[in-house]
Design a protein that fits this description.
By secondary structure, the chain is an all-alpha fold. Helix content is about 75%, strand content about 0%. Helix 1 packs across helix 3 and helix 1 packs antiparallel against helix 4. It binds fe (ii) ion.
Length: about 160
């Protein structure tokens, strides 16, 4: 177990960078889910409207965990959308996606991208000896894998 001081190394900066990347991507993911929640129509309206709400509430919780982890290890979490958009690898869903299947496909695609980044974050945190971040990202890996499984099942 490392002390707070021992975590303040050059490698910690790499962890902060990847966590800020994740933070930016989760904020875009959150806003994408908001758009889907608002715009969905059709015979799956009730189930998807509610499911998107569950997902964006989870995403909001993750956003807070990521930002507070960044602070815990001595970094500064980005908080403006201008910053998020400049680094995010996720595309904003700018079309009004009302179709249930297309919406779920978009969430699945976003989730797969996030999973890749979470795994990269785990590697960076591991190399930095940052067990706290590894633990946070491990939990996130499991829940994201589960969501990917469920979304894939939905689309079959
Ligand atoms: Fe709502």
């Amino acid at each position: 177990m490392k002390t707070q001081d021992q975590l303040t190394t050059a490698k910690t900066q790499d962890v902060v960078t990847v966590l800020n990347q994740l933070l930016a991507d989760y904020q875009i993911y959150y806003q994408n889910l908001r758009g889907l929640h608002w715009n969905v129509t059709g015979n799956m309206f009730f189930s998807l409207h509610e499911k998107y709400e569950n997902y964006y509430n989870e995403a909001a919780e993750v956003v807070d965990q990521l930002a507070e982890r960044i602070l815990t290890i001595g970094g500064k979490p980005a908080h403006t959308f201008a910053d998020y958009l400049s680094v995010s690898g996720l595309k904003e869903l700018d079309d009004d996606i009302s179709d249930g299947k297309k919406g779920v496909e978009a969430v699945l695609e976003n989730s797969k991208y996030l999973l890749g980044l979470i795994r990269r974050g785990s590697e960076v945190a591991s190399a930095a000896g940052d067990e706290g971040t590894v633990a946070l990202l491990s939990e996130l890996t499991g829940s994201t894998e589960k969501r990917i499984w469920m979304l894939t099942a939905f689309l079959k």
